[in-house]
Amino acid sequence: MKDSEDPGERLVLKVFWMMNSRPGLASRLFLILVFVCAVSMGSALGQPRSTFARHGYGGGRLIVQRAANFGWNLAVHLWIDGRDVANIVQGRHYDRFVSAGHHVLTVLSVPNADFRQPTSIWLTVQPGHAYVFTAAWESDRIVLRRSNADQRHSDKARFQ
């Protein structure tokens, strides 16, 4: 390596020497940065804006609960617009904000040992409103019934 009198050339040579002396550190930092970006993008893609509204802005609140006599060994599997969103087990419910507009809610009991077909309903969500449904049995199929508690939850959703 020649000792140059030009300070710019000397700086470039020092930078190259530093990069070559620690290739593992630079590679690790780059890989960490790529990993962090991938995780961040994966989180953002996991809840697309077309289905879910962040913090309820421009959307409404959707609550899906199970009927008390639904079955201790069954869960309610819920899809919104064809996307898996939840398995609602005994003692739990689904409570999230959904973007305004038209949506299709689909439910099925799981495990599905009897090979039942899922049932779907259309829901038009308006900003600031809440929609409460109860998953219940009707004959041998699961249905979503609209609850009377919608208005009470709509008032809460608007002011939170």
Structural category:
alpha+beta
CATH topology of the largest domain: Immunoglobulin-like
Question: If classified by CATH, what would the architecture of the largest domain be?
Answer: Sandwich
What share of the residues lie within helices? 25-40%
Write out the strand line-up for the largest beta sheet, numbering strands in chain order. 4-1-7-8
- Cα Rg: 27 Å
| Proportion of residues in extended strands | 35-45%
Model description:
Mean pLDDT is 76; it is low at 46-54 and 152-160. The relative contact order is 0.15. With 160 residues, the protein is α+β, with helices and mostly antiparallel strands. The chain has a four-stranded mixed sheet with strand order 4-1-7-8, with helices on one face. A four-stranded antiparallel sheet has the order 3-2-5-6, with no helix packed on it. It has three helices and eight strands, in the order ααββββββββα. It has two domains: 7-46; 54-159, Immunoglobulin-like, CATH 2.60.40. The protein has helices spanning 7-21, 23-46, 150-159; strands at 59-66, 75-80, 83-88, 93-99, 101-110, 119-125, 130-138, 141-146.
Question: What are the defining features of this structure?
Answer:
160 residues, alpha+beta, Immunoglobulin-like, four-stranded antiparallel β-sheet
